[in-house]
Write a structure and sequence with these properties.
By secondary structure, the protein is of the alpha/beta class. The protein contains 12 helices and 12 strands. Pfam families: Abhydrolase_1.
Length: about 375
Amino acid sequence: MLMAAATFNSFTLPFSKPEFPFSSIARTHIPTPTLNLSRFRPNGFLLCSLSSDHPTTATGGQLHHKTNTNSTEPPPQIHNCTWNWKGYSIRYQCSGSSGPALVLVHGFGANSNHWRKNIPVLAKSHRVYAIDLIGYGYSDKPNPREVRDSFYTFETWGSQLNDFCSSVVKDKAFFICNSIGGLVGLQAAVAKPEICRGLFLLNVSLRMLHVKKQPWFGRPFIASFQSLLRNTAVGKLFFRSVATPESVRSILCQCYHDTSQVTEELVQIILHPGLKPGAVDVFLEFICYSGGPLPEELLPQVECPVLIAWGDKDPWESIELGRAYGDFDTVEDFVVLPNVGHCPQDEAPHLVNPLVESFVSRHSKSTANASTAI
């Protein structure tokens, strides 16, 4: 992630640019979904199918996607579900009944709704799961001061991802990840290589504020700034200053090259979970997280195939720096996505979805006759 400057009152504050602000919106009317408790899994976790009359809502209800009226095949149904992980409620979506399993992992401040343009397409020939990482979206947001130290880390999220595959997917899976979600996927694949069949990374976070990437003379300043945000009222005041629809829209227009894709629906998708208690504490905890793994440390340890795709107009994660990841022996290809920003899956799904399908098909054939249960 790149260094940026955010003006807060009369101060200029440096911080690491996330892919989104995690924030709050003015409380608007959200259509109430209809709950259908009709679908259970053998593992005892309840899958709640939620429906709404509104197309592609940004709420926790079932997502309905507008389709081509000339198509005779209805889109796969998307189920909005809850999984209990270590006593915490984790929200995820699933769709599709056959084919390889895909787990979609969002970036910082986002949630599984950010894959709304990918799930119905990929679910036609895959079993697709999109998860809200703990602390984000509609998953629980435990206060980092009330749980163990260093709770919101890539090790925690990697463990969540692997446990999700074991408990819910009940299969090996391909991880499809954006930005810091790429670090989550890499960490999970390194920790339990028997679970991940392949990694598809979109504009993986460079983590430019990592302590190892800072000059020695700059580290005390960054540490002091992070302490100011985390331990004083300045942090929450700063959060409130960017937690507005106008700020979020402005930031999204920076990271999306095609700003016509920054719709009111997208703004609400990112903002609405920010209304949940604890969102501000997760935000402050993560921007003060300068340790943990780097992608260049994890990539050499990965045992599964890796494909990296990068929007060449990403203003936050430079493609010039990202290209270096294509040189790792574990990376089979580095694909440039022309005229695309930081979130290719949402800005250019017409480019991303076929790449995902091709990657998964290519690496599913070699294990087609092998058992994939875990």
